[in-house]
Amino acid sequence: MKHIWHKLLLLILLLNSCVAKFVPEIDEEKELLVVQGLITDQPEADTIKLSKSRPMGQVDEATILSGWLVRISDDLGNTFYLSECKAGTYITNPLNFKGEIGRSYKLHLTENPNNSNLNFLLNYESYPIEMKPVPPIDSLYYEKTVIEPAIDKFRGVNGCQIYLDTNDPDKTCRFYRWNFTETWILRLLFPVENQTCWITENSHNINIKSTAAFTDSRIERFPINYISNETDRLKRKYSIIVNQYSMNEDEYNYWERLQNITAQVGGLYDIIPSSIPSNIECIEKPDEKVLGYFSVSAKSSKRIYIKDNFEGIIDHYNNCITDTIPYIDVQGLGISLWILDDGQYHIPPYKVLTDNKGCADCTVRGTTVKPGYWVDDK
Q: Which residues sit opposite 165 in a β-bridge?
């Protein structure tokens, strides 16, 4: 019997040792040009980002493409050159370029001659895209949601659903896309130097909607963002600015396919991003695949502030205290500790310590500089 157990143990060890990473061979380029670009009708710098995708099976970050010649042309024969503000990021000059509704625009890219492996430079070009108008956001509002109902002394748990309404009476805008930026106040529990910060994050989800199948181009109660009790966004004061963009049908189809991919688990036979057609092609090598999209959109924005009583918001800082010790030199302990409360004038004097820097310094997550758009309570 003892020999049988030994054989079973050996078999288990052999099976575990046979696990190997499988990277399928696919018939496509190892590295593909990735273009992230958007121009609008607003007096602000527009951004084009260039990179190269990594081969399947590698988890390294994309290769940033610096030193490229990036320019935009319109249907009137004008050309606008972009400058590289940081590696791989190219911006327009708001003083001489702003998109105009009704005009068509093309993106032109020429690779860095120092990085070319060919005897000639590769040039990439988008097809012309007309900038379509976009209506203003009619209303941006929120409603409390009940995650757990209140029972007796239990106050319940709330979330927050943010909606928007928009309407185009002229019916010229049929395809919409939205993104947003959130900002909220973080105030730590202890009287530390950096106690109050503002945290800002951009949206990552794909929010799109088509009204092409309806008589009117009206959208009501579109769920733009949901905030659960698992975050401290609603703890004190929260703000969200939503940007609304116009699109043509081709770009809508691009975002819809990309949205479907992000909603899938990602099995071996699912659609891969390189199967989504881009609106950019290589002039010298028309069969070369390009990832990403050059967007030409009119833009409207709306901001709201939320300061309300939401029950059941989780406190991520309720276990900050590591220890309370007599008033001694913490640095001499030789370990990473931060002071939450300096009670040197108490009798006897003491220090409240934490081993979590985020409990003692809000700049771990945000900034102490109040945003210029932030409105204080009166």
A: 139
DSSP-assigned states of every residue in 327-374: S--GGGG-S--EEEEEETTSSS-EEEEES-HHHH-GGGTSBSSPPTT-
Q: Where do runs of H (alpha helix) occur along the chain?
A: 2-17, 249-263, 357-360
* DSSP secondary structure of 40-61: -SSSS--EEEEEEPPPTT--SP
Pick from 181, 176, 141, 182: which is nearest to 161 by CA? 141
Tell which residue, 79, 320, 52, 76, has the closest CA to residue 195: 320
pLDDT (tens digit per residue) in 24-81: 444 455 689 999 999 999 999 999 999 998 665 454 567 899 999 999 999 999 999 9
Residues in the chain: 378
Q: Answer whether 218's CB lies under 8 Å from 139's CB.
A: no
CA dihedral 48, 50, 55, 59 (to 10 degrees): -80
Name the burial class of residue 135, with classes exposed (0-12), middle (13-18) and buried (19+) by CB atoms within 10 angstroms of its CB: buried
* pLDDT score for 22: 44
pLDDT category at 153 given cuts 50, 70, 90 is: confident
> Which residues are paired to 294 by β-bridges?
37
Separation of alpha carbons 337 and 1, rounded Å:
55
Q: Would you give the DSSP letter of residue 104? A: E
Residue 130 CB neighbours (<10 A)? 13
For the chain, the structural domain boundaries read 33-133+251-298, 137-247, 323-364
Q: What share of the chain is helix, strand, coil (3-state, %, to 5)?
A: 15, 40, 50
User: Exposed, middle or buried by CB within 10 Å (0-12, 13-18, 19+), for 286?
Assistant: exposed
Hey, what are 14's tokens? 């052999």
Contact call for residues 298 and 170 (beta carbons, < 8 A): no
